[in-house]
C-alpha cells in the first residue's frame, strides 16, 4: 500500500470573496479512491477492480491471457485519478505469476472518452432508430407497473 507520509495532512481552500469560507480537506482526498481496491471501505460486498479485471482475463483463452495482461487500457473519469494505473498494475501483478508482465495504459483520450463515444453514436445513421422515445419509455414504465405485485 502507498504511504501518505510526506503529504500535507490538511489542505485549506479559501474563497476569494468577502465572506471567505475556509474548507479543510484531510487525507480523505487520497484515501477515497481506495474503495476501488477495497470496496468494503465503501460498505460494498463486491469484488475489487483489480480482481474483476483479473477474472475477466482468466475467462479468455489461455494463449491470449499474457497479451491481455500487457494491454490493459483505462479510460473515463476515474482513470484521471493520480497513480491509478500504477496501483492497478501493482495489484494485478500480485494476482499473477511473478514471471508474467502486466502493463496498464492510460488512454490519451480518457478525459473526453464519454463525449467522443456519444458523438460517434449521435452521428451514426441509425441514431434515430436506436433512441428511446418518450412513448417507448412510457410504454415500458406501464409494463413495469402492471407486472409488479
Automatic annotation (TrEMBL):
Which organism is the protein's source?
Parascaris equorum (Equine roundworm)
The record, for SUPFAM superfamilies, names: Actin-like ATPase domain (SSF53067)
Quote the protein name from its UniProt record: Cell division protein FtsA
